[in-house]
Amino acid sequence: MSERRIGVWLIGAWGGVATTVVVGLTALKHRLTDTVGLVSAMPQFANLDLADWDELVIGGHEIRDTNFATEAAQLHKQSHVFSEAWLSKLADELQAIDARVKPGTLHGVGAKIESLAGTPARQFLSETPGAAVDRLARDMDRFRKDNSLDQVIVVNVSSTEPPVDDSVRSLNWTTVEQQLKTGGPCPLPASSLYAIAAFRHQFPYVNFTPSVGTNLVALEEYAQQQNVVHVGRDGKTGETLMKAVLAPMFANRNLRVMSWVGHNIFGNLDGKVLDDPENKANKVRSKDHLLTEILGYKPQTLVSIEYIESMGDWKTAWDHIHFQGFLGTPMVLQFIWQGCDSLLAAPLVIDLVRFTEREARRGGSGIMGHLSSFFKSPMGCEEPAFALQFEQLLAWAKDVSGK
Asked: What is the pTM of this model?
């Protein structure tokens, strides 16, 4: 067994994606499953000396009052994922990980997410943003020390926050740092406060959500100052993945897309949060910008996201693409994408942990643009097409391995 010990600190630790990450990593550790769905397990990355399952230790922040066993059982009951035999076998380990989950912060999460918070998180409602960062950073560092970890990768897999005001995007780090130190108000949302807490101890930060996270001038400045890597935003798992693959086909065959309509329905906690128009705005924006970037013009588009409770974690997307062919002939392509949301996202989170840890280990800093193929709104990358983004990942792997 390797002597390396890598921490995985999950923001939104008892959510569906995080629970699936925890169950998946524990199952992989015990060789209960194979590596289907894991990009980092592909032969192209075999020479990178990536972190193994036995090296990963999990903790996190959460605002709700629940536990991994309860959430895993709910996923099994409602969405028919996981094996009951697995959950029984892994029960003691899941309970041990529960003990490493601490109350998160509610600053800037929006009324919908705040309404989900349990008593442990609510006791911190009156703390200032600066005090919240101090507390979150202490939790992360204590996790590192208590578990003798060489590195901690912080991954945000929490629910989507409302969009931030445009004025927040231009704030510099000096201004933000002063706001946090004086104990007064600070306009940064929770996703950014978690990142600041991580950067304080030079822990890499991965934002798998549409929330703004580190995609701010101030946070990018702080990351460079701390010489730490970070990446985001919004994991690309389903319908948008299809757009990133299909839109280049239309562009490269000179077929003009006139309209592209996508209807999405799902019933998990994320869907419940996105049922609020304020939170939904961030997600729709993240899903809708891609076509214009790939095609070079803006077709008429519509993206709808609806919460249908009975669907559970199963997400269905219907897409209708109306395009113009030779001699002006209108044609249609339709597709249906149905997948278990957490099962699509969790392996990508594990991939991002492994790739991020490897880049940090070799001394990288700043935005990891080579991981753009994992995100709908990738930072540090101007290339929107999935195939070309994946080539960037392969080029990085070749550089790391020296081959």
From this structure: 0.94
Neighbours of 270 (CB within 10 A): 27
* Share above pLDDT 90 across residues of the chain, in percent, rounded to a whole number: 84
| pLDDT, tens digit (0-9, with 9 covering 90-100), for 275-292 | 667 665 666 665 668 899
In Å, the largest CA–CA distance within the chain is 69
Q: How many residues does the chain have?
A: 403
Q: Which of the pair, 285 or 95, is modelled with greater confidence?
A: 95
Comparing 278 with 257, which gets the higher pLDDT? 257
CATH number of 6-235+343-401: 3.40.50.720
Q: Residue 124 CB: number of other CB atoms within 10 A?
A: 18
CB 173 within 8 A of CB 221: yes
Alpha carbon 226 to chain centroid, angstroms: 22
Alpha helices in 80-128 (DSSP H): 84-89, 91-98, 111-114, 119-122
Between helices 16-29 and 91-98, what is the axis angle to 10°? Answer: 130
What's the CA gap between 78 and 16, in Å, rounded?
Answer: 12
Residue located via tokens 């946090």 = 180
Give the residue carrying structure tokens 């035999």.
Answer: 85
Q: Which fold has domain 239-339?
A: Dihydrodipicolinate Reductase; domain 2 (3.30.360)
